[in-house]
C-alpha cells in the first residue's frame, strides 16, 4: 500500500484541483483530505457521509468563579496571559498546558477535553474519501491530519486498496509535518513565480529532511517558463523527480465551478492532457517505489 | 491602526494586496509579514535588511544527577515532551509548548530551561516603509510563537499592515487578533467561497470589522458577491484577472509600480477603511 501526499509550500498552486483530477484517473484508491483548516476537496468529490465523528484533542482550562479565591497563582504561572484580571480564561489564548489546573490551591479550575472538529468517512463517485473540518480558530490541526491519514490507511487495508492519495495543507508547519510523516512519496505542486520558487525551496527541504521520495510538477508553467525551468533545475539538484508540467488553463476554474474534475469537465483541454500524462508517469513512479 | 490581511484559501492574493497597499501609502506605514512558514512579502518589497534576530523558545533540560525519576514532570506534560521510561527521563524538545509546567512541578528542581530555535526575524526598510518578517525554521512545527514575536514590532503610532498566512486555525488567529480591521482577500470560485466563510467565522469570533477584496474578480461565478451582500460584508476592491498582472507577479513586480493608476485605488481603499472605523 502506498500513500502519495500532495503538498505545495505556497497556497493556491493547484493541489486540490490536481488531486481531484488524479481521483478521476486513478482506478483503485482511497482519497484523504488533510487540509483540515480549509478543506475544499469535498466540493468536487461530493461525498456521501457514512460516518461522522467528533474530533477531541487537547484541553481548555475553565475557572469556577465560585471556588476561585483570586489568589492569582494561575495568572502568575500562565505563559500566555490567557487569564484575565477577573479570572476568566481566554479560550483563544489558552494553550491547554494544564499548569493552572494542576497548581490551583482551591482546585477551582477544570480541564475538559476539547472537541475541536469533526472527521468523516464518506463514499464518492471516486471511491472512499476521509476528510475533516477543524473548528474555526482551533489548534491541534496536526493531530487531526494524523487521524485522517490513519483512517485512510485502515480503509485501504480493509478493502485491499493499494493507493492512497492525500491532499495536503499549504505551508511547512505542524499540519504539513503531520501530513508527511510516513508518506511513501510526496508530490510538490508548484507555480512558476518568485513566491512559488521561494516556498518550494523550503518545502522540498522539509520533504528531504523526512527522506521521502519527492516529485514535482509545475502548474501554470507557461506564466513564466524561465522560472519553471529554474525551479525544475533546483529540484533535480536536490534529488526531486520532475514528473510533469501543466499549462495555465482556466478550464480548471470552470470545472471547479461545475463541481467537476478537469477530466470530467473537458477531457480535450490542454490541462487535462497534461494531467493525464502526469498521471501515467506518476503511477509508474509509485509502482517502482 | 492595525489592518490584517487574511483569506482562508491560499493563493488568493493576500501578499499582493498587503505589499501593494503598504507601498501606496506615503509614510507612517509598517508591513509585518506574519506568514512565517512561507513569507513572500520581501520578494516584492525588496527591503534592505538592517537586523536579524534568532528567536527561541524555552524547553526543558533535566539534571540527571538531581532527578529521582518521580515522573511528576511527565504527569503534568500535556504534549508528551518529557517522559520517564525505565531508568531514564527523556525530553522531546520539538513537542514542547514551553509552558514551564515540568520545571515548576519538579520536587528536586532538577529541570532548567534551554532553548529550541523557532526561526528568525528580519527587519529593515524600503524608503519610509518599515518592514518586518519572520521565517520559521524548517522542521519547526509551531508558527504562532514566532508570529507573536513578529507582532511585537507593532508601533502604535503607525499604520501596521499584517500579511497573514492562509487557513483559519491558530497561526491565522495569531495574525488577526487585536487588529482594528481585517481585509479578506478572496477569489470568486467555490473553493474561494468555502474558505471565505470559514475566515469570516474566525473574524466574527474575534469581533473585528472586516471587508473584502475580490481578486481575479471576472472569473469563477457570482456566489462570493451574493454571499458578501447577504452577510453585509463590504467589497472594498475588485482586481480583475489579467495575464500581464499574473506574469508581473511571477517576476516579483508590484502592480502599483507597473500600473501607477492602481496606487490611487489602494490608497482610496485605505481611506475608506479608515473612515469606516471612525464612525
Provide the descriptors you would attach to this structure in a database record.
heterodimer, A: 289 residues, alpha/beta, Rossmann fold, two-stranded antiparallel ribbon, 24% strand, B: 279 residues, Alpha-Beta Plaits, 9-stranded mixed beta sheet, two-stranded antiparallel sheet
Helical segment count of chain B: 11
Instruction: Tell me the CATH topology of the largest domain in chain B.
Output: Rossmann fold
Main sheet: strand order of chain A:
3-6-7-2-8-1-9-10-11
Number of domains of chain B: 2
Structure write-up:
The complex is a heterodimer of chains A (289) and B (279). Chain A has 289 residues and is an alpha/beta fold. Chain A folds into 2 domains: 2-56 and 117-288, P-loop containing nucleotide triphosphate hydrolases (Rossmann fold, 3-Layer(aba) Sandwich), CATH 3.40.50; 71-111, 2-Layer Sandwich (Alpha-Beta Plaits), CATH 3.30.70. Chain A is 38% helix and 24% strand. Chain A has helices spanning 15-25, 42-45, 73-77, 99-103, 141-159, 174-180, 194-209, 225-237, 251-257, 262-265, 270-288, and strands at residues 2-7, 29-33, 48-59, 62-63, 109-110, 113-124, 127-134, 163-167, 185-190, 214-219, 241-246. In chain A, the strands form 2 sheets. Chain A has a 9-stranded mixed β-sheet with strand order 3-6-7-2-8-1-9-10-11, sandwiched between helices. In chain A, strands 4-5 form a two-stranded antiparallel ribbon. Chain A starts with a strand and ends with a helix. Chain B is α/β, with parallel strands linked by helices and 279 residues long. Chain B has 2 domains: 2-55 and 118-278, Rossmann fold, CATH 3.40.50.300; 64-109, 2-Layer Sandwich (Alpha-Beta Plaits), CATH 3.30.70. In chain B, strands 3-6-7-2-8-1-9-10-11 form a 9-stranded mixed β-sheet, with helices on both faces. In chain B, strands 4-5 form a two-stranded antiparallel ribbon. In chain B, helix 1 packs across helix 11 and helix 5 packs parallel to helix 6. The longest helix of chain B is centred in the C-terminal third of the chain and has 18 residues, at 261-278. Chain B is elongated. The model of chain B has no long low-confidence stretch (mean pLDDT 97). At the A-B interface, helix 4, helix 6, helix 7 and helix 9 of A face helix 4, helix 6, helix 7 and helix 9 of B.
Amino acid at each position: 500500500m502506498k500513500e502519495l501526499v500532495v503538498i505545495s509550500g505556497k497556497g493556491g498552486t493547484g493541489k486540490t484541483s490536481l488531486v481531484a483530477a488524479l481521483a478521476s484517473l486513478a482506478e483503485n484508491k482511497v482519497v484523504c483530505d488533510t487540509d483540515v483548516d480549509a478543506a475544499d476537496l469535498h466540493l468536487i468529490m461530493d461525498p456521501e457521509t457514512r460516518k461522522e465523528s467528533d474530533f477531541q484533542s487537547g484541553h481548555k482550562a475553565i475557572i469556577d468563579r465560585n471556588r476561585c479565591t483570586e489568589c492569582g497563582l494561575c495568572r502568575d504561572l500562565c505563559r500566555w496571559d490567557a487569564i484575565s484580571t477577573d479570572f476568566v480564561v481566554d479560550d483563544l489564548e489558552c494553550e491547554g498546558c494544564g499548569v493552572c489546573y494542576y497548581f490551583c490551591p482551591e482546585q477551582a479550575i477544570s480541564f475538559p477535553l476539547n472537541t475541536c472538529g469533526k472527521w468523516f468517512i464518506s463514499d464518492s463517485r471516486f471511491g472512499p474519501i476521509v476528510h475533516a473540518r477543524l473548528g474555526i480558530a482551533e489548534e491541534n490541526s496536526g493531530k487531526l491530519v494524523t487521524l485522517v491519514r490513519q483512517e485512510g490507511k485502515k480503509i485501504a487495508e480493509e478493502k485491499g486498496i493499494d493507493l492512497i492519495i492525500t491532499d495536503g495543507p499549504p505551508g511547512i508547519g505542524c499540519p504539513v509535518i503531520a501530513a508527511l510523516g510516513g508518506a511513501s512519496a510526496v508530490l510538490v505542486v508548484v507555480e512558476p513565480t518568485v513566491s512559488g520558487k521561494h516556498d518550494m525551496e523550503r518545502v522540498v527541504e522539509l520533504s528531504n529532511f523526512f527522506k521521502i521520495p519527492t516529485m514535482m510538477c509545475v502548474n501554470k508553467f507557461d506564466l513564466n517558463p524561465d522560472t519553471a525551468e529554474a525551479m525544475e533545475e533546483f529540484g533535480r539538484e536536490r534529488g526531486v523527480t520532475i514528473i510533469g508540467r501543466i499549462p495555465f488553463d482556466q478550464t480548471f476554474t470552470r470545472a471547479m465551478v461545475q463541481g467537476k474534475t478537469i477530466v470530467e469537465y473537458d477531457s480535450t483541454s490542454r490541462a487535462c492532457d497534461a494531467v493525464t500524462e502526469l498521471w501515467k508517469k506518476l503511477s509508474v513512479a509509485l509502482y517502482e517505489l | 491602526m492595525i489592518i490584517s490581511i487574511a483569506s482562508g484559501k491560499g493563493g488568493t492574493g493576500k501578499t499582493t494586496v498587503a505589499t501593494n497597499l503598504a507601498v501606496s501609502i506615503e509614510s507612517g506605514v509598517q508591513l509585518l509579514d506574519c506568514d512565517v512558514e512561507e513569507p513572500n512579502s520581501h520578494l516584492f518589497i525588496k527591503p534592505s535588511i538592517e537586523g536579524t534576530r534568532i528567536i527561541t523558545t524555552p524547553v526543558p533540560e533535566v539534571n540527571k544527577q538531581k532527578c529521582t525519576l518521580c515522573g511528576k514532570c511527565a504527569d503534568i506534560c500535556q504534549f508528551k515532551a518529557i517522559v520517564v521510561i525505565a531508568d531514564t527521563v527523556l525530553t522531546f524538545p520539538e513537542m514542547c509548548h514551553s509552558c514551564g509546567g515540568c520545571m515548576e512541578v519538579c520536587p528536586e528542581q532538577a529541570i532548567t530551561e534551554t532553548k529550541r530555535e523557532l526561526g528568525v526575524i528580519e527587519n529593515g526598510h524600503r524608503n519610509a516603509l518599515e518592514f518586518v518578517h519572520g521565517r520559521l525554521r524548517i522542521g519547526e512545527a509551531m508558527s504562532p510563537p514566532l508570529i507573536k514575536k513578529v507582532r511585537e514590532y507593532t508601533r502604535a503610532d503607525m499604520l501596521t499592515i499584517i500579511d497573514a498566512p492562509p487557513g483559519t486555525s491558530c497561526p491565522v488567529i495569531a495574525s488577526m487578533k487585536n487588529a482594528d480591521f481585517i481585509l479578506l482577500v478572496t477569489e470568486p470560485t467555490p473553493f474561494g467561497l468555502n474558505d471565505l466563510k470559514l475566515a469570516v467565522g474566525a473574524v466574527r469570533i474575534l469581533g473585528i470589522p472586516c471587508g473584502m477584496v475580490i481578486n481575479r474578480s471576472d472569473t469563477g461565478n457570482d456566489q462570493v458577491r451574493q454571499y458578501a451582500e447577504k452577510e453585509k460584508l463590504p467589497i472594498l476592491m475588485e482586481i480583475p484577472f489579467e495575464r500581464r498582472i499574473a506574469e508581473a507577479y511571477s517576476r516579483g513586480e508590484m502592480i502599483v509600480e507597473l500600473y501607477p493608476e492602481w496606487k490611487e485605488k489602494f490608497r482610496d481603499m485605505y481611506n475608506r477603511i479608515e473612515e469606516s472605523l471612525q464612525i
